[in-house]
Structure formats: C-alpha cells, structure tokens
Amino acid sequence: MRAAAPITQPRLSIALGLLLGLSVGSAAAEVVVVVSKNSPVTALTREQVVDIFLGKASRFPDGTRAVPIDHLEGSALRDEFYLKFAVRSPAQVKAHWSKIIFTGRGQPPQEIANAGDMKKVLAENPNAIGYIEQNLVDASVKVLLAQ
Amino acid sequence: MRPLPPFMHSSIAALALGLGLVACATATGARADSSASPQFLFSGFGTFGVVHSSERNADFTYTAVKPRGAGFSRNWSPEIDSLIAAQVSASFTPGLSAVVQVIAEQNYDHTYRPHVEWANVKYQFTPDFSVRAGRIVLPIFMAADTRKIGYANPWVRQPVEVYSLAPISTSDGLDASYRLQLGAATNSLQASIGREDKRFPSATAKARALLTVVNTIEHGYATLRVSYARARITISDFDPLFDAFRQFGPEGTALADKYNVNARLMSLIGVGAGFDPGPWFVLGEWSRVDGQSIFGRKSAWYVGGGYRFGKLTPYAAYAAAKADNLSDPGLALSTLPPHLAGPANGLNAGLNELLGVKLVQDTFTVGARWDFVRNAALKVQFEHTRIGAGSTGGLGNLQPGFRPGGSLNVISATIDFVF
C-alpha cells in the first residue's frame, strides 16, 4: 500500500531543515534505533518509529505493545534523534507533548540518562524500543533503523 | 455572605479535589517508581500577554466570556491572553488514571478565581480504547481542547471567526476514544455525551443532551478531521425579552417563538486539515453552526501557515465568518397605538442587539514566534479585521460612540511557557 514517493520526501525535508539551521550544530555520532536482542521485531520504517515515539502508535506492526524509551530532555542525542527521524526541533516536540499532556491524553515516554541505562531497560523489557549512538551498539541490542 | 449558585459548589468541590491531589503529589514526590502505588505528575502552562486595539469605543476581548479587554477599558490589556494553569495527573493502576487542571484567568465576573478546566477519571481498557468520566474540554474544533495552551499553538490565539461559532466549550459527562491503525495511517474516533453551564458576563448558557463525535486521521505529516456536535441550548436570561414580545399578540408571539433560547437545538459540523513536514506548516478549518433561535445559521473558515527559520517562525493567516440574519424589523410600529410603539421599539432594539453579536467579518493576521529558550516562546502578532455592516465584531463594552461595521487593528505580544 505504501508508495515509493514518501521515502524521498523526508530526505528532502531533512535537507531543508539542515539548510534552515534546525541542526543541533555538532557532528554527533550516528543515531540508531534499537530493541532488545530478544525482541521479535526485526524492522521498522522511519514513520513507524516516529509514530511510536510521538505517542501516535502504541503497537509494533505485529501487534505487540511498543514501549518507547527516551533520552533526557536537553541531551544532544535526543535532539539529534527527533531532528533526523521526525524532522522536529526540540520546541516542536515539546509543543506536541504539551497538547497531549494538557488534554489528559497521555504522558511522554520514560526517560533514561545514558546508553548504558538504555541497554539495561531494553534487556529487561522486550517491548521497549530506544535509540543510542551507533558506536555503542553491542550484542545485547538489535539495530532496527539507522538515520 | 450570599449563598453560592449550585454550579459554583461543584466547581469548588472539583477545585478542592485538585488541590488535594496537588498536596498528595508534593508529599509523594513527583515521580514515584513503584507501579503498585499511585503515581502523581505535576505540570503546568501559562501565558503572559498584552493586547492593543484600535477601537477606543469598545473592548476587544476575543471571547464573550471576558468582560474587559483592550480598547475602551485599557490601551494595552493584559487581561485577554494572560493565564496560568496547573495540572495534576494521577495514575492509580496501569489502566486507571485521573487528571485535574485548574486555570486562573479573567473570569466572566472579572475575578481571577481559579476554575476547573479539566477533571476526569480515565480507564484505559486497551492501549487504543479508553473511557473518561468527568469534565473534558470538547474537541469540536481542531485546537479547541488545546486553545489555552499558548506554547502548543502556532499563533497568539485561534482565529475568533471559527472558534467563537459555538457557545459551548466543555462537557461534564462521559467520553470514549478509540484508535485504529489503518496501514500507515492512524484513525482516532472520540465521542462524548454530557452537559455544560457556561457563564457569560450577563447570561448563562446551558447546554443539555450535548453530544459530540470527532474523527481524526493522521498519516505521516498530514492530519484530516471531521467533527459533529449538537446540544439543546437554554439561555433563560433572555426570557423576559421574549415574554414581553408575547404581549404583542400573534406578531409578537411569532417573533418570540422564532428567536427564544429555551431548549433550542444547535448543531455544528466542522472539517479541518493540516500538513506539517517540519520546516513549514499549513492548516485550515471550516465549520458551520445551524441554530434555531437567535443563533441562526453561521459559518466560518480560516487557513494559515508558517515557515520555521530555526527558532524563528513567521506566520500568516486569513479567516472569514458569515451569518444569516444580523437584524430583524421586529414588531411593526406603524400599526401600534402610540403608547405601545415606544415599548415595542425598545423590544426591537433588544432583539437586534442580540442578533448583531454574530460575527460577519474577515481578518488578516501576520506574526512571528520565537522559541528563545527551552519551554518558552515569544509571539508578536498583528491583525486587521474588516467588520461587516451591522455587526459589532464580537466586541464588548460598547460605548455610546461605537458604530457597528468598520475595521479594527489588534496588536498582541505574548510569552507562552510550559513547566
């Protein structure tokens, strides 16, 4: 059902975003989306990842519950993740969650402080999904998507 | 001390519950870890804003709820957009949660007494199906339930042409939400049934059998929604006027039957769409109200957009509203004996004052949002409104020198924040 066109469009938007100074400015390490090595999920599209992290989808494509885990607000990795995958600045993400929180519809994802804590949470919960720097990937996690 | 009207008792009870929850949250600590004990989250938002209006013989108030605004009462008014809101969300079990939100802003009686905006208990049957009981803000327009969260909105305030169409905003009752994944699209259906007593400076509008259905489809960067609402509206403050009309025989009775606001049916349909790929956004809405009584048929639409240059987002919008009958010849004075012509003329004037409140106008808006720090944004906005002949443009505090129609310039500056 999904046409090929939407794949190129986000790239264009990302390029536009970078041109317009939405970038966090540092040459940060590449962000990758990860789940536990025990998770049955093997692949997600960029749109599916974004829907899970913005609270629009509560399940993986196979129907199992998806539990997004975020890095702390203000961390460079988090800003990079939302900029690259959702084409959203920190203020846009904040505004998005403000609408959800202050209409009683939900709360933003649980937050962890670093990649070590992220791997710990993923190992404990096969429904959890997170993101880390690519150079910190090890055998405990499975990479679903790179930027 | 005067006895409190019943609606204030319920408001105070809900406020007491809210404050109790705040106290619990403070005592428990903001984020408890154990899932066995209740968890409380405290958060809030607010706006400090000032507004200037070019019309000195009336007040620009944005909403008929607020008795004071910019123009006549003050050259620059902080009373239109400024507000502060505090919210406590409580999670008791994985499925059961509650939320109480209290807002302090200019009230219908020109006090700043905090009022309960949201107070409900939610049960989440599945991640995609939930039911709430209590008070909710109705999502009859695209941003109706988020209109007071300045930080979440692209402009200073939602276009008055569309957002003033309905005299209702909240519902005390039940509502259910169901979300369905349709391929890459998400479909959300929300339905509610309830009631509302809404206070205005000189009247109370009671909505009964208040029913709403809203369906939203989101696909990637696109959002499309349709909404329907209906209610029986009663404004008994207008009864004396229509009772007086009934003293004037069949002609007066016909006018009273046509325009009275006693359990009269009002329905609303709305369509909204938005596209936000990140660096820019566009959104628009159209809505129509069919009301018996003085409300008649009215419709409005707007379209707006912005471009994000990093932390600076300039934006522009255009909105227009039209309404059926802004005036009525009323009782024919020529056929009345002289001693009745005077009172009849007064009744006609009273009726036409109510009819002229409807918006017939269009507005050009330009502005900019600057996300100068995390959690806060500064907005500056200019609006030019052309008011249709015979319409008072939704302005309040009309002074003897005021003339309907004409044009209006409004300048606003706000700082919005969330915490």
Question: Helix and strand layout, with pairings?
Answer:
The complex is a heterodimer of chains A (147) and B (419).
Chain A: H1 5-19, E1 31-36, H2 46-53, E2 67-71, H3 76-86, H4 90-101, E3 110-112, H5 115-124, E4 128-133, E5 141-146
Parallel strand pairs in A: 2-3, 2-4
Antiparallel strand pairs in A: 1-4, 1-5
Chain B: H1 6-28, E1 39-53, E2 59-60, E3 70-71, E4 76-77, E5 83-91, E6 96-104, E7 115-126, E8 129-137, H2 160-163, E9 170-182, E10 185-200, E11 203-219, E12 222-234, H3 239-245, H4 249-259, E13 264-275, E14 280-291, E15 297-307, E16 312-323, H5 338-355, E17 361-373, E18 376-387, E19 406-418
Antiparallel strand pairs in B: 1-4, 1-5, 1-19, 2-3, 5-6, 6-7, 7-8, 8-9, 9-10, 10-11, 11-12, 12-13, 13-14, 14-15, 15-16, 16-17, 17-18, 18-19
Helix pairs in contact in B: 3-4
At a glance:
The complex is a heterodimer of chains A (147) and B (419). By secondary structure, chain A is an alpha/beta fold.
How are helices and strands ordered from N to C of chain B?
HEEEEEEEEHEEEEHHEEEEHEEE
The protein's oligomeric status is: heterodimer
Shape of chain A: globular
In the CATH scheme, the class of chain A would be Alpha Beta
Assigned CATH class of chain B:
Mainly Beta
CATH architecture of chain A: 3-Layer(aba) Sandwich
If you consult CATH, what is the topology of chain A?
A: D-Maltodextrin-Binding Protein, domain 2
What would you report as the Rg of chain B, rounded to the nearest angstrom?
A: 23 Å
Provide a descriptive summary of the structure in words.
The complex is a heterodimer of chains A (147) and B (419). Chain A is 38% helix and 18% strand. Chain A is α/β, with parallel strands linked by helices and 147 residues long. Chain A has a single domain (27-146), classed as D-Maltodextrin-Binding Protein, domain 2, CATH 3.40.190.10. In chain A, strands 3-2-4-1-5 form a five-stranded mixed sheet. The model of chain A is unreliable at 1-26 (pLDDT under 50). Chain B has 419 residues and is an alpha+beta fold. Chain B has one domain (47-81, 141-418): Porin (Beta Barrel), CATH 2.40.160. Chain B is built from five helices and 19 strands. Chain B has helices at residues 6-28, 160-163, 239-245, 249-259, 338-355, and strands at 39-53, 59-60, 70-71, 76-77, 83-91, 96-104, 115-126, 129-137, 170-182, 185-200, 203-219, 222-234, 264-275, 280-291, 297-307, 312-323, 361-373, 376-387, 406-418. In chain B, strands 1-5-6-7-8-9-10-11-12-13-14-15-16-17-18-19 form a 16-stranded antiparallel barrel. The two termini of chain B are 37 Å apart. Classes of the chains: A alpha/beta (147), B alpha+beta (419). The A-B interface holds A 1-2, 6, 9-10, 13, 16-17, 20-22, 45, 47-48, 51, 56-59, 65, 73-74, 86-92, 94-96, 98-99, 101-105, 107 and B 41, 43, 45, 85, 87, 89, 99, 101, 118, 120, 122, 127-128, 132, 136-137, 139, 145-146, 149, 151-152, 177, 179, 181, 183-184, 186, 218, 220, 277-279, 308-311, 371, 374-375, 377, 418.
